[in-house]
Amino acid sequence: MKLSLDQIQDQNLSQISEHARNFEFLAESLEKKGIKVEELISKLQELQIAIPSWALGTGGTRFGRFSGGGEPATLIQKIQDVGILHALNQSSNAVSLHIPWDIPSDFQAIKDSAADVGIGFDAVNSNTFQDQAEQANSYKFGSLANSDSSVRELAIAHNQEVIAIGEKLGSKALTVWLADGSSFPGQHSMRKALENTHLALQEIYQAVPEDWKLLIEYKPYEPYFYSTVIQDWGTSFLLANKLGKKAYTLVDLGHHLPNTNIEQIVSTLMTEEKLGGFHFNDSKYGDDDLTVGSIKPYQLFLIFQELVKGFEETKNPPLSWMIDASHNLKDPMEDLLQSVQAIKLAYAQALLVDSQVLQQAQEIHDITAAQEILQDAYRTDLRPLLAEAMRRAGGAINPVKTFRNLKVRETLIQERGLKSIASGL
Amino acid sequence: MKLSLDQIQDQNLSQISEHARNFEFLAESLEKKGIKVEELISKLQELQIAIPSWALGTGGTRFGRFSGGGEPATLIQKIQDVGILHALNQSSNAVSLHIPWDIPSDFQAIKDSAADVGIGFDAVNSNTFQDQAEQANSYKFGSLANSDSSVRELAIAHNQEVIAIGEKLGSKALTVWLADGSSFPGQHSMRKALENTHLALQEIYQAVPEDWKLLIEYKPYEPYFYSTVIQDWGTSFLLANKLGKKAYTLVDLGHHLPNTNIEQIVSTLMTEEKLGGFHFNDSKYGDDDLTVGSIKPYQLFLIFQELVKGFEETKNPPLSWMIDASHNLKDPMEDLLQSVQAIKLAYAQALLVDSQVLQQAQEIHDITAAQEILQDAYRTDLRPLLAEAMRRAGGAINPVKTFRNLKVRETLIQERGLKSIASGL
Amino acid sequence: MKLSLDQIQDQNLSQISEHARNFEFLAESLEKKGIKVEELISKLQELQIAIPSWALGTGGTRFGRFSGGGEPATLIQKIQDVGILHALNQSSNAVSLHIPWDIPSDFQAIKDSAADVGIGFDAVNSNTFQDQAEQANSYKFGSLANSDSSVRELAIAHNQEVIAIGEKLGSKALTVWLADGSSFPGQHSMRKALENTHLALQEIYQAVPEDWKLLIEYKPYEPYFYSTVIQDWGTSFLLANKLGKKAYTLVDLGHHLPNTNIEQIVSTLMTEEKLGGFHFNDSKYGDDDLTVGSIKPYQLFLIFQELVKGFEETKNPPLSWMIDASHNLKDPMEDLLQSVQAIKLAYAQALLVDSQVLQQAQEIHDITAAQEILQDAYRTDLRPLLAEAMRRAGGAINPVKTFRNLKVRETLIQERGLKSIASGL
Amino acid sequence: MKLSLDQIQDQNLSQISEHARNFEFLAESLEKKGIKVEELISKLQELQIAIPSWALGTGGTRFGRFSGGGEPATLIQKIQDVGILHALNQSSNAVSLHIPWDIPSDFQAIKDSAADVGIGFDAVNSNTFQDQAEQANSYKFGSLANSDSSVRELAIAHNQEVIAIGEKLGSKALTVWLADGSSFPGQHSMRKALENTHLALQEIYQAVPEDWKLLIEYKPYEPYFYSTVIQDWGTSFLLANKLGKKAYTLVDLGHHLPNTNIEQIVSTLMTEEKLGGFHFNDSKYGDDDLTVGSIKPYQLFLIFQELVKGFEETKNPPLSWMIDASHNLKDPMEDLLQSVQAIKLAYAQALLVDSQVLQQAQEIHDITAAQEILQDAYRTDLRPLLAEAMRRAGGAINPVKTFRNLKVRETLIQERGLKSIASGL
């Protein structure tokens, strides 16, 4: 299945008059405040958020998995799904592959499929937290951190292979999420685990092409429950510094202890020019992998506020923008559409903040005013602006509604069947 | 100092045309969706949030206290401050006193002062967590829970006295926040501490007039750091049930462990008809006592969504609405104005949710739609509606701005001096 | 495979002299303090902790499952494994079955197998958090709480069937862990979900035999990530009270928010005579399901201290003692042996506390002394006492060592193969 | 008041026979396992933990302070108290001063007092989180991080002055705990706050003598409740690296988010040779500042296990060992005695671990064995060993008991009065 521009524009027709009324009022309000609406629209259009290949099917928990219907069973079907999402919101022009869940066999066919729907290949992701059927050694007790050198070598080789796949596809980054850790005190030497990881990453780093980034995730716990080798941004940053200028820290919003001030981590990493990118999602408890913006939308805005300031004030290089969510209950594609909306809305709100006026308030410690400035931006309803940005780019005024009106899921079920299950978690 | 209606209306003049433009657009948008704007405005005007007497001065932490200027040194000055707030937002027509920080000596004078600025007396608060200068026994090791019966009797008598004071002022509720707990395992018998508390509350309960409520707070920790006698809503609810129909649970938003789903507690308590009221504030870590809505505005909306549904679906009696914040850094009055705005905005957003449409989505497990419904209400910018509700009631379109334009703080400093310090924390 | 008394006593021979030296010294030391060692030994021998059938195989996380070898593939094999554990420690004379993972087909054969190794059947566990192959309706959006009455009826019928199975086996309790909840605000009405649950539990309750208990678990999150219907002890307690005298709250140590004071919950539930039993495990972050005592052994002691006091001071009925752990990395049987040791050691330590002396310290607020009393009990090395209790009952002085010396796992792998996988998580 | 060796030895007399029995059995047991008891005793004797001057009086919370009697009102009295503690346990031969709570006026007198009781001066602590009476600018909105350069200069000058004081006393380290942060989003620029802090620390660093250490604390929240400039070990480590080889990270056990794996932070910092020292205390919720070992003794052991391994395996320099507790309820001196016992006991347990055997288990992923090894060390009752180490050094077999038998507090109250209050929190 593939959505055409015409289909989407037809749908927009029925919404255009209400949209125009809202957008015009908003644009006028913003212009009155001296905000350049056209600039905002351009910036919003430029922000493209990659879709992870594993998020197109229903993810499960350890207690079970309840698949929906019409899930993409092959990589080409996953690419088609991203193509549909991108057609709807013009905001997701790339897919982020997870190896070995999505090993391309025929590279040309894969690239053609992607080109056909206007998408490219963002960061490739390695997987050394699950054993594959044919695997010589097990990752049960860790991969890059394992005390057994043959396991480490297996994991290094896998990462090198993932890079090779990414090069053929045109990716420019390798994301390493390392589950390695321990579930019991004494299980391993935390020092040696970190050193093994460092040395193994060095070998992988050498295989990273010069124009690539190596993105290092961190996470405090799960799937191990006592310690994780790269437990926090400090550890990831330590490793990225040791590795060199191609290595960066990647922030997954769900990978923090309760109450962590994530926006401050973002600020610090940008100051140090070591923020590599994001895995966006939302959570209330742990790595819940919920729809972006569904639980803590204000925190998302505060993060974007740091990002916008960081791009103005630091030399941090451009970021990799990715979603990492696990869609247990909603239709995965609707979930992704909601996530992209939430991200772009937070970005738009952050762009609204007048950083000079804010700075003046900060300098005289006028906290009341600083809060009013931030909340004024946050509480302004910018959905018409976002809709206009998408509409002008050829997307839908309301992507979720259009997804439903065009009966995308029903069509996919017809094409793929009700029991089709995506590879992944 | 006292603000007149004229002063405020003068200030509104300069903002009226922009406000009118915004309000008219919003009202039209809402009416198009079938929402009755005038009903919303009435409901918003009816919601009155009591100001705690202790929040008018700068609160401190254990590491220090940095007072501002012009703080109210007497109860009459505190009442004046509440009068100013109420004049500005027409939303805080009552003060909640804390005994012994604010023991009235001349009741008639106090009542006259309050009547003069149009405010009444909400719940009275007892204090058995600090020793007073003349006190025979110490609360160091607990009050109502203390193993020493003479301490318990002192604390019971204090609560009875607070009720007597409240009766003279026209209060209709006693709020009991019991710090009692332990900082070390073994310090006291948790069972006996709970039983002592139950028995002591029974005696206090008997002194509670028939048309009053006894509001029982809960809190997991601080100022004791191992256990608190009334550690959670379950314990408060248990006690309220044992005590009888005048006893209710009071929810302070900051009194929960990390990640607690507070809105669910609200839902359960209303179902059981035992929700008595709120202490509103906001927090990121613990009982941070920050400005309402400054950290987690979406959670506040979700709480109000449960409240609005609860009033429709349950027989829970009307609530006591109070702020409990500690203003360490901002001007306390500005902070309170921001808090009231945040509360009323969350209420307005919750009123916007079409509960029937939401219920339909819930029944068919259409989670995507349910999220869209809630977030549509939350993301609609209802500030013009709130401003209109306040303006029509005689308040300011923008209370914080008007507070500043009218140079309230400067005047208070002139009247009271720079070093005036409020009693309280 | 089955262990004989002789095999174990042979193993004990090599350890007996060192053990005797340690035990004699300890016994003398305790007697000097007025502690009756023989009484302690009896009490330790009496405490029997049921083994959950699902813990005999390797559990997984959502990221994967790394099975070990020789796992029990059938219910009879699981019973054999429990028999081996019980032969080793004489402390686990019952198995707790999980339906439908372990539906008995031939009841007589099952009962004969169990009788053969001296074990009985503890609480039966229902499962309405996973769909079974043939199932008419899905639990994807909840079971007892579901807005769809046909799903609720399915779940009720399943629980009734589990009770019927339990009756045939001689169980005396049904444990209901209800995953039901929501992952997004607005997904369901929290009020209706609770009411549906209450009504459904009422129907199940009617099927619970008079001499049984209905044990209601609570848990704050997972597998749903916004709300759980029975989120905390307060909600479980509320339901148990409404249901009647056969209904009790079950405490799973891993089912709490960060920093929860679990021992206080135990104390309160016993005071209210509503504590039904335990699922023992340990955790650092969430429901980590680690070996009991591997992370927070002092907390375990404090819980047992409340239990011992509770049995002295309240009328709470005898408890169901069960382990609920998920063994991802260790040999499951070794893990269970370690768990039982940790539980019994904590119990022994708690028995050592002189409650009268402690109470005297508490009454005069002598916190230093209270801490010394508790820590003296905790720091006393009671392992020789536990070993003696087990040895005298026919078990091993050191169960884990004996398990290894007798090459239990190797034998099981020989019997069952390396790829045998247990049903369950 | 001053304790003599004779007084303590007299007290020991009544306990010596029971102690001898226990010690001899333990020593024999350890020697049988190949552990060199005399070496253990030496190492235990060598570990000296500095007492903070502010912990000798009762600390308070924001809700109040309940002083005990006989608190040291002057620096000389504080030194006397440390002298008493050291006489009792021979384990606290230094005091750590907090400026300006304890500014020495007559340096020679202070040094003479200290020499008289055999104690020296550990790290000096600066205070830029409270305003002093005469202060030109306020720290209300931060000190080293403040956007106002005159405040920063004041704070820098204060730190330089503290160094100067420390030099006169013989201190070899400056501990900087920086409360600086924000309580509201937008209050300050987190980037500029960090940069200001870095530049200010650079100036302070230049004043740090070559043979000194600059110890940088971190803390996630309190007294600010949205962000703290040095929020975690990563930020402290970042700054210490930028500053140079005299700068180190200091770990305060209470300064972490819920569930943090502190022992892993210790391991990482030692690997990087940047661990500077500790502030020991214990906590259940936040920075509770409770007696060391009173809440999580196993965590303390695990931290010491990393320390012992770290000293073997890394080049991290020797540490500053300090207590930082706030004694709200217990007699502060008893509390400190209990804390020192807990620290040394954890150290002794950690020394018991056979690192080679542990390593072998780790290499073959024998997690069951690794847990047995750690828990065997932890569960061995080493209190007789510690008592012997203290006794041989001239201290008490049981310091708390001896403190009470010698009626230290009663004497201090007689000398200083019941209302004497120590400076500090």
UniProtKB/TrEMBL annotation, chains A, B, C, D:
GO terms for molecular function: isomerase activity. InterPro entries: L-rhamnose_isomerase (IPR050337), Xyl_isomerase-like_sf (IPR036237). Keywords: Isomerase, Manganese, Metal-binding. The keyword Transmembrane helix does not apply. The keyword Acyltransferase does not apply. PANTHER family: L-RHAMNOSE ISOMERASE (PTHR30268:SF0). This is Sugar isomerase. It comes from Algoriphagus halophytocola.
